[in-house]
Write a structure and sequence with these properties.
single chain; 8 helices
Amino acid sequence: MVIWNGKHLIGTSPKCARRSIVSWGEANGFVQLGDADVKKIEDATAIYFVRNPNGRLPKQIQTVTKRFATAQGKEPMAQWQYTEELLRETLEDEPKDWHNIDPVHLQKQTSASERYKNITWNFVKLDDLDTWATDNGYANFELYPENADPSLIALINFFIEECRVEDLYKEDFDLYQSL
């Protein structure tokens, strides 16, 4: 997702506080841009907010589980065993196919930034968005609470650790730690 106000271009990846950022952006004169519009921008101060992968990754998998559950007419907890089975089989058979299970929600954090070769992004931790906002004359940023099922997130965290899913997101972890 990319928002723009004529001065600052702000990018984020899916599952990176989208509702909070869109709401904050609208209150501060930002509009969301499509791919074609972003590709036309020639000069901008471009900020790309990066979320801590330790929090982002379980929520990505939760979103995929919820989407599969909706398609099957089930509750996410009832769908988890089937989603976990698919994820495990993919990791065992062909780990490169992991991101293809759900290309939007399982992509790496920098995927959106890499689509726009005309933009030089400055990466900033999402945790620092409020400071960045006030330093640049914008209203404070408030991160909305997320819809997370604690029981499902606990199962997902166990799965992530057991199957070493973090290895697929090494770049995300490295980038976050470097900021």
